[in-house]
């Protein structure tokens, strides 16, 4: 998976290699920090707004834990002799660490994409769900086989005939081709999943600008796919044994980490939109109060619901606990007027409009009436 031929296989003992440890750690942990920040905000928004966590959130946390393990082990490798000095060679400990970090990276790649597939399952009809399930199952099966192959011996390679490897061998070229095919398949899955939001929403009756904005927000995984495709093309150029051999390996490690971190990050951005709207409203509230005017702004949020009709009136100063048992807690009104547009599949898109209200004590207090198509509405974002 990595650009890491074994150091004992034809290595030049007198080569002085460039050690990219500082640059590597800067890249790995910057990506990890960004992914962690966005994931924490995603979970915070869902918990505090009483949407609750779903399976996709738990899978995303699992992918994040794999990213943490991968980055920690790679940093440890470079700090404890990954780049040979004075003709030194890797010991069994280093080979085991490399295998483990390769496996955790594969798990992180697959599970981060699986999380988005599970998210899409809440929004699609039965026919579309079959396609998503096929993608999820095949990705995870490929992951399992790649992990097993990582620990297999290579036929006719004496350096791989060691005790910590599984007691069977595979052809070296076949293993390399299988891993590359898995990377390409993951890229294809990114594009497939990015297509689904457009497929789901294109026939919904809503403004074109809002439709495009929503689809773009949910299709940011295309960016990750493009980055991964560039990485695969760059890897195909090979990595010759010169003083910059391990520096290029370090760059490869950052590329692989960016795929997992990027997949986590882009799934959190759409969820944070209501949170950012609240931040924006807090900054503009004083201006609206001083002008005494009415401000109309619109936003949107995904919902999935069962078909029953009810109407709920709510006020921005009302305790949300008062709405428990009525279905209103899942909707989360914050002085908004929400209009839902439904499709035949049960998917709903809430167009949220902020309303000015009567001014009392120098503060504009808004009132909203919310028409709900179901007694229980599960919010996607």
Automatic annotation (TrEMBL):
Transmembrane regions listed in the UniProt entry: 26-45, 57-76, 96-118, 130-152, 183-200, 212-234, 254-276
Chief site of localization: membrane
GO CC annotation: membrane
Pfam families per UniProt: Fung_rhodopsin (PF20684)
Subcellular location: Membrane
InterPro entries: Rhodopsin_dom_fungi, SAT4-like
Membrane topology recorded in Swiss-Prot or TrEMBL: Multi-pass membrane protein
Domain of life: Eukaryota
Keyword Nucleus attached: no
Sorted UniProt keywords: Membrane, Transmembrane, Transmembrane helix
Domain Rhodopsin: 41-277
Family: Belongs to the SAT4 family.
PANTHER family (alphabetical): INTEGRAL MEMBRANE PROTEIN, PTH11-LIKE INTEGRAL MEMBRANE PROTEIN (AFU_ORTHOLOGUE AFUA_5G11245)
Name assigned to this protein: Rhodopsin domain-containing protein
């Amino acid at each position: 998976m990595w650009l890491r031929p074994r150091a004992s296989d034809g290595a030049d003992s007198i080569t002085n290699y460039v050690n990219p440890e500082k640059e590597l750690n800067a890249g790995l942990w910057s990506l990890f920090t960004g992914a962690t920040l966005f994931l924490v905000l995603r979970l915070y928004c869902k918990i505090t707004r009483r949407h609750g966590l779903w399976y996709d959130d738990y899978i995303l946390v699992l992918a994040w834990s794999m990213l943490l393990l991968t980055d920690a082990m790679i940093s440890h490798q470079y700090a404890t002799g990954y780049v040979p000095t004075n003709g030194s060679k890797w010991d069994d400990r280093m080979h085991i660490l490399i295998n483990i970090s390769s496996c955790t990276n594969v798990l992180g790649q697959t599970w981060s994409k699986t999380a988005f597939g599970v998210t899409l399952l809440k929004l699609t009809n039965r026919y579309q769900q079959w396609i998503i399930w096929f993608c999820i199952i095949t990705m995870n099966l490929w992951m399992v086989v790649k992990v097993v192959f990582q620990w297999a011996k290579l036929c006719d390679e004496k350096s791989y005939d060691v005790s910590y490897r599984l007691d069977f061998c595979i052809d070296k070229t076949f293993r390399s081709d299988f891993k590359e095919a898995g990377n390409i398949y993951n890229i294809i899955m990114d594009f497939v999943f990015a297509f689904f939001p457009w497929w789901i929403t294109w026939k919904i009756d809503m403004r074109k600008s809002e439709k495009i904005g929503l689809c773009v927000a949910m299709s940011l995984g295309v960016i990750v796919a493009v980055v991964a495709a560039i990485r695969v093309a760059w890897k195909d150029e090979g990595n010759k044994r010169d003083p910059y051999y391990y520096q290029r390996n370090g760059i490869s490690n950052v590329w692989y980490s960016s795929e997992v971190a990027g997949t986590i990050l882009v799934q959190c951005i759409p969820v944070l939109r209501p949170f950012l709207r609240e931040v924006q409203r807090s900054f503009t509230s004083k201006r609206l109060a001083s002008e005494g005017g009415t401000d109309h702004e619109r936003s949107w949020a995904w919902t999935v619901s069962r078909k029953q009709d009810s109407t709920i009136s709510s006020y921005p100063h009302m305790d949300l606990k008062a709405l428990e048992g009525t279905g209103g807690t899942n909707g989360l009104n914050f002085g908004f007027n929400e209009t839902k547009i439904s499709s035949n599949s049960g998917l709903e898109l809430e167009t949220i409009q902020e309303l000015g209200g009567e001014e009392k004590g120098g503060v504009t207090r808004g009132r909203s009436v919310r028409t709900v198509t179901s007694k229980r509405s599960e919010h996607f974002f």
